[in-house]
Specification:
six-stranded mixed sheet, disordered N terminus, mainly beta, Immunoglobulin-like, 2 domains
């Protein structure tokens, strides 16, 4: 994914399921911060000084398209602030697609609060889509000399505040760019009243509101990709408020194979085909965890790695104290490993549980050192070896993990076995000479 500059709140990368994520990131851009001059305008309504205009972008993988933003019975669409949202009473709209480019020069229309799927305005010949200001290199038709100055006819126009907290000034980059293939089949529900055609939500100017929460609302079209196919950022909302912003969004995305996938902000209920994407909830919540599946603390569905949280190495084994191969060092029980007299999963119980039938260490004709061992296990035969012998190491499953032949010798024998590649655990060492065999257990750490 390309580098993005500017003043942004960035959602964590790989916020969704690693198996099927089309949503790479969620970006909240500080688009503009109003000043005292902007607050003088009354034709557009009462825009409070120091209000912040945010733009929310969905960062999709290349080739995907955003089709719908919605709330349903299991996953509400939520957008809220600690103070009211600004909506322009002069020429404001509920949806970005309905703005005429010429209206962006009127008073504070360009700071109106609305929803969209990519499209931010239109003219007779061109359709404009939202882009990050840092990616917009075609100038601006918003603010300054492009603005009428509002009801007070402020010289030089409105929307000229260059507060560094908002990054690039609107008079330099307006976050608008064209695309040759605009979407069609627009449809919305649950926002504008179907009878009166009045929007009394946070996206309309009829009523001052601090939140929109709906389990039956949506805006959709035929599907939109970003202006830049590589970055593939799709604008979904512009929101102006002096308060602290929060939201939970749910999306329908057309993936690279043409299938529609639903991404939701919370997993209180997940039905077939829905994928949890935590960064659709703002403020963003970081979920970090152990990245190593060899540890009990491993977190598969994580947003970032926390190596220090990997503390307990998994030791597989039989934790049934009634089994002959009970492993007191195990912390992850696997019942199929357990071996009992008369029932040993069709395995050789003499290998799995040599304590039942092998000579005690004191009477063995060999020694193993050190025990426990880490890298090199030394086989020590205090007497001469009169015939060729086979040394074999078995794991707790009775599987052979190491084997080496020892030639005949007329002197005591010491042989080093490199077992560094063997996993930690309890093993059986078997010395076989002809038809006879001796066994001893050792621990690898």
């Amino acid at each position: 994914m390309k580098k993005i500059s500017g003043l942004l709140f960035l959602g964590l990368l790989l916020c969704c399921s690693r198996l099927s994520a089309q949503v790479e990131n969620v970006i909240v851009e500080t688009y503009y911060i109003s000043d005292a001059n902007d607050a003088t305008d009354t034709s557009g309504g009462n825009l409070a000084d120091r209000s912040t205009t945010y733009r929310i972008y969905i960062d999709l993988i290349a080739g995907s398209k955003l089709k719908k933003i919605y709330g349903d019975a299991n996953h509400a669409l939520k957008i809220a602030s600690t103070e009211i949202f600004f909506n322009n009473i002069d020429r404001g709209q509920s949806f970005g697609k309905d703005f005429s480019k010429s209206n962006y020069g009127d008073n504070t229309v360009a700071l109106d609060s609305w929803l969209t799927i990519g499209q931010a305005t239109k003219t007779g010949a061109k359709t404009y889509f939202g882009v990050l200001k840092s990616m917009d290199d075609d100038g601006s038709f918003v603010g300054g000399t492009n603005n009428d100055g509002g009801s007070e006819e402020i010289p030089g126009g409105l929307l000229i505040n260059n507060d560094p907290a908002a990054g690039i000034p609107l008079t330099t980059s307006d976050g608008m760019d064209t695309m040759s293939s605009p979407p069609d089949n627009w449809y919305n529900y649950g926002i504008i009243d179907s009878i009166s055609f009045v929007d009394s939500t946070i996206f309309g100017s009829v009523k001052a509101c601090t939140q929109f929460i709906s389990n039956n609302a949506g805006l959709m079209n035929s599907g939109v990709a970003g202006v830049n196919p590589d970055s593939n950022l799709v604008l979904v909302a512009q929101l102006t408020t002096r308060g602290e912003l929060s939201f939970e969004l749910n999306l329908e995305v057309i993936d690279t194979s043409g299938q529609t996938v639903k991404y939701v902000a919370n997993d209180s209920v997940l039905v077939n085909g829905e994928v949890l994407c935590r960064n659709l909830k703002f403020p963003f919540a970081m979920v970090c965890g152990c990245p190593d599946p060899n540890y009990l603390e491993y977190v598969a569905d994580r947003d970032c790695d926390a190596q220090d949280s990997c503390r307990t190495l998994i030791v597989f084994g039989c934790m049934d104290t009634m089994a002959c191969n009970y492993n007191p060092d195990a912390n992850f029980h696997i019942q199929s490993l357990c071996c009992y007299p008369g029932y040993c999963q069709d395995r050789d119980i003499s290998v799995i549980c040599p304590s039942l039938n092998y000579e005690k260490r004191g009477t063995l004709n060999f020694n193993l050192a050190p025990d426990p061992v880490h890298d090199v296990l030394t086989f020590q035969a205090p007497a001469s070896i009169e015939s060729e012998s086979i040394c074999t190491i078995y794991n707790c499953l009775g599987e052979m993990v190491f084997q080496k032949n020892i030639a005949m010798s007329s002197v005591p024998v010491n042989v080093d076995f490199d077992i560094a590649s063997i996993r930690a655990g309890t093993y059986v060492f078997m010395l076989q000479r002809g038809a006879s065999a001796e066994r001893a257990m050792f621990i690898k750490y």
